[in-house]
Design brief:
By secondary structure, this protein is of the alpha+beta class. The chain is built from three helices and seven strands. Helices cover about 30% and strands about 30% of the residues.
Length: about 150
């Protein structure tokens, strides 16, 4: 994966430093999405200043295509883009799995750890991917990670 830059001189106004996400010369996020990521990074920079970290949240995310709204190619893209959105925000991905290939339905599931400050962004990004594939809902269950 290529290196991502958060701040870049705006090509539209060379005197302005704008909040955008770029990979090399390719623009990859809208201004609103960049703001959400920038907010998360600002929160991250405030950590480690003598404060105890809140426990990570365990999040289970489930998507499906049992209603056959999506073609196989669309389902594949939906799974891939959902995974990218999750992977870019998760602290750890513990599990990623899919229904058996001969099952009468299509579904996928991820179990991840996320810092509480990133939950809102996770919901936004996963929701954005779901809406782009005309999904009515994506199931997300949030719990607290505890070691027994």
């Amino acid at each position: 994966m290529s290196e991502k830059q958060l701040f870049k001189i705006s090509p539209w106004n060379p005197g302005e430093l704008s909040l955008q996400i770029w990979e090399g010369d390719k623009f990859v996020m809208t201004y609103a999405e960049a703001q959400a990521v920038g907010e998360a990074l600002l929160i991250a920079t405030r950590r480690g200043q003598g404060k105890e970290e809140p426990p990570m949240k365990t999040v289970t995310i489930q998507i499906g295509n049992s209603d056959d709204k999506l073609t196989q190619k669309e389902w594949s893209s939906f799974c891939h883009l959902t995974h990218e959105a999750i992977f870019n925000i998760a602290h750890k991905v513990h599990f990623r799995g899919f229904a058996d290939g001969d099952a009468p339905w299509q579904n996928a599931c991820w179990v991840i750890e996320v810092h509480p400050d990133y939950l809102r962004i996770l919901f936004q990004e996963v929701g954005r991917v779901g809406r782009s594939f005309h999904q009515d809902a994506i199931a997300i269950a949030v719990g607290e990670t505890r070691m027994a």
